[in-house]
Amino acid sequence: MSSTGVPLFDLQIQHRTLQESIQAAVARVLASGQVILGPEVACLEEEIARFCGVGHAVGCASGTDALSLALQALGVGPDDEVILPAFTFFATAGAVCRLGARPIFADIDATTYNLDPLQVENKITEKTKAILIVHLFGQCADMEPLWHVAERHNVPIVEDAAQAFGAEYQGNRTGTLGAIGCFSFYPTKILGACGDAGMVVTNDPEWAARLACLRVHGMEKRYHHKYIGWNARLDAVQAALLRAKLPHVDRWIEERQAVAQRYNVLLDEYHLADFLERPVVRPQRRHVFNQYVVRVAPAQREALIRHLKAERIGTEVYYPIPLHLQECLAYLGYREGDFPASEEACESVLALPMYPELTLDQQARVIQSCSTFLRQRVRKAA
Ligand SMILES: *Cc1c(COP(=O)(O)O)cnc(C)c1O
After folding, report:
1. Looking at the domain assignment, is residue 174 inside a domain?
2. Distance between CA 250 and CA 321 in Å, rounded?
3. Number of domains in the chain
4. pLDDT tens across 364-382, in order?
5. Which domain range does residue 265 map to?
6. Ligand 1 mutation target, pool 9, 71, 92, most atoms within 8 A of CB
7. What does the pLDDT average to over 6-29?
8. Nearest CA to ligand 1 atom 7
């Protein structure tokens, strides 16, 4: 097999190609002396708001902070309930718990890995303060039925769009699909900083003002604290870097879509459809492919990962344990079997290398390597 590996992602390529504008951005901040918030952050907020087609954007220190700020701005606190999927990154639930509220899990749709709208409505109680949806792997959740549920019960939707910056549903971008949208600019996300960064967006000017206040210890006037907020400020260096990258994001998304399409074709060419189930893109969605996730038979997955690792092909399991079975959430009293689609996803998902600059040759290496392994397995079993 080939001597050169294929990494799961490669951040250096972007930084090499944008080296000049990134260095200029950093130099600009250093020269300005304003290293936290300030004009760079304000400009980024304006540019992100325009990119999303939303009225207001508030920069913050991470996607996790974005979730905390959004939930607190909506008044989520002790004894409240927030409904969210059992299959997502931990931060989605962590933000709920940190506010003293109770996460109420719902199962996912097995084909898209996103919240199953049919599982949401019967979990709504008089304590439900928000429905926290996740656009997992870069594809928007099934919004139309979720909007109906939210409207019927007058409960706001918060979008965890950490993996879906630039994704669209019926032509509308993430951040505009709920009351408040949350983005992460963690380095491996669609738009990545060189460190931690995040953003909260909303069309409501009052919520925007509250979010901006909560971000700096709930301080409205200097040393006058209206709320018990957070230190969730965004660094100017990260904002400047993100501004240098933002004009390229739509092209990167198109390149990611092309990479996904090529994987699909390769899976056909290698007749692997029965072994590696490809991601399903639902109609009227712009899937931004933060990850390209296939499904593998649970019995094969560990050995396949080992085989690919030996060939220096990067993979990752997002996520091996559903949230309702996490050790620190045992107090919620959930059991194995409560959310079968989430549990099955945890046992079968596998993310393959995905980044805009991934070449056809590299992808062929990945799929060929999968093919060699899986066919060997089948022959042994026969
Ligand atoms: C990355 C991520 C977060 C958290 O973002 P950070 O910037 O790492 O704090 C939250 N939710 C989901 C679904 C994520 O993928």
Report:
1. yes
2. 32
3. 2
4. 999 999 999 998 877 777 6
5. 248-381
6. 92
7. 95
8. 63
Average pLDDT over residues 14-25: 95
Residues having CB closer than 6 A to ligand 1 are 62-64, 88-89, 91-92, 134, 160, 162-163, 184, 186, 196, 198
Query: Which residues are registered as beta bridge partners of 134?
Result: 160
Average pLDDT of span 263-289: 96
- Distance in Å, CA 301 to ligand 1 centroid: 25
pLDDT in tens, 84-140: 999 999 999 999 999 999 999 999 999 999 999 999 999 999 999 999 999 999 999
The CA distance from 137 to 124, in Å, is 26
Alpha helices in 80-220 (DSSP H): 90-98, 143-153, 205-215
CB of 211 closer than 8 Å to CB of 13: no
The token duo for 361 is 């040759």
Query: What span, in angstroms and rounded, lies between the C-alpha atoms of 281 and 283?
Result: 7
Pairing of strands 198-202, 180-184: antiparallel
Interatomic CA distance for residues 215 and 69, integer angstroms: 7
Rg of the chain, C-alpha, whole Å? 21
Question: Is 215 found in the same domain as 120?
Answer: yes
What is the best residue among 64, 113, 234 to mutate for testing ligand 1's pocket, by most ligand atoms within 8 Å of CB?
64
* Same domain? 156 vs 90: yes
